[in-house]
User: Which sequence fits this backbone?
């Protein structure tokens, strides 16, 4: 049973990696990052259940809080970039190097 949860976690993480590498849209990249964070949460909770502790659950809650803060900050950056540049392509970020 544990192997099936870990297999799903690995598949979700791999799909997230492919999404980050292959896509150019900022929203798709952020969705892929969120998918990778959720895959890590699934692995944390799975190992927590395996060892019968609550450590993985607590760590998953911390990761969810970090993901929520990341999503709020990323949305603000995306709105500002769209307002100034008029597009949401990841090539816009290279213009920020200055």
Assistant:
């Amino acid at each position: 049973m544990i192997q099936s949860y870990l297999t799903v976690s690995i598949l979700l993480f791999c799909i997230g990696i492919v999404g980050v590498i292959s896509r150019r849209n900022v929203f798709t990249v952020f969705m892929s990052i969120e998918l990778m964070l959720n895959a890590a949460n699934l692995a944390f909770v799975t190992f927590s259940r395996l060892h019968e502790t609550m450590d993985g659950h607590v760590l998953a809650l911390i990761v969810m809080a970090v993901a929520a803060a990341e999503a709020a900050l990323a949305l603000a950056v995306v709105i500002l970039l769209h307002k100034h540049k008029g597009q949401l392509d990841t090539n816009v970020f290279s213009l920020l190097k200055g």
Remarks:
- The radius of gyration is 16 Å.
- Residues 55-85 form the longest helix (31 residues).
